Amino acid sequence: xxxxxxxxxxxxxxxxxxxxxxxxxxxxxxxxxxxxxxxxxxxxxxxxxxxxxxxxxxxxxxxxxxxxxxxxxxxxxxxxxxxxxxxxxxxxxxxxxxxxxxxxxxxxxxxxxxxxxxxxxxxxxxxxxxxxxxxxxxxxxxxxxxxxxxxxxxxxxxxxxxxxxxxxxxxxxxxxxxxxxxxxxxxxxxxxxxxxxxxxxxxxxxxxxxxxxxxxxxxxxxxxxxxxxxxxxxxxxxxxxxxxxxxxxxxxxxxxxxxxxxxxxxxxxxxxxxxxxxxxxxxxxxxxxxxxxxxxxxxxxxxxxxxxxxxx
Length: 312
Prior knowledge:
By secondary structure, the chain is α+β, with helices and mostly antiparallel strands. The protein has two domains: about 5-145, AhpD-like, CATH 1.20.1290; about 170-295, Gcn5-related N-acetyltransferase (GNAT) (Aminopeptidase, 3-Layer(aba) Sandwich). The protein is about 50% helix and about 15% strand. The protein has helices at about 10-20, 20-35, 40-55, 55-70, 75-80, 85, 90-105, 115-120, 125-145, 180-185, 185-190, 200-210, 260-275, 290-295; strands at about 170-175, 215-220, 225-235, 240-250, 280. Strands 1-2-3-4-5 form a five-stranded mixed β-sheet. Strand 3 and strand 4 form a beta hairpin. The radius of gyration is 21 Å and the shape is globular. GO terms for molecular function: acyltransferase activity, transferring groups other than amino-acyl groups; peroxiredoxin activity.
């Protein structure tokens, strides 16, 4: 069959129209996994690998598109099919991938205790529940999209993140996943958060916040961190589900180079991928330059925040 002769058995748009409750239910499962606090990059890696095992072209391409938008390292995407021998995956990622493969193939072989013991070593019970749900959900998607041969959502051209003046070849987007990386970010974060006091204090604060869902990302060039953003997904009665930006800072020696705009746009992309209805941040009333920057990028001042000490 040539490309020109290919046609889906049922088109995705027709399936969604005929059975809207089905994708809605599967998306609800996906949202539950996202809300669990598991790293989005990890779950996308699992979805990609399971889709490869099941031979679902639609889901492989769909999750490759998301992974690239998240800024995942190309070697991991290229080598996930041979993850055991690739040498680029962490122990946590390897345990999750082994668990995903075992669950996907459980009709052929029993899920052995050794695989479960390894995943227990890397994840707590709540995380294992979320991992298992993620694997079950992508298997369901694969069986629908693969059997009905939905057309793969191939992006036009090679994906490149929006750079807004940043030299894309020299700078890279990086997720800060360990304390060594976090400590490297301290000098720049201290330009914004003067009250931190020391690198050790920042590292301790980062560890506590990360346990509660805080994520730190950077735009870096070589060993130089050009811009930082800290954020978390929240939900309340005012905004619904939203991405709250705790921190956004550009190196004072590298202002007006488009780094802040580049990172803010990545945060907007991240918010959409995480199912957030909006992006929210706070800035001091005295930060006139910051106000102009946010207005230029489509953010509006919609409220005043009041704060005060708890002691009377």
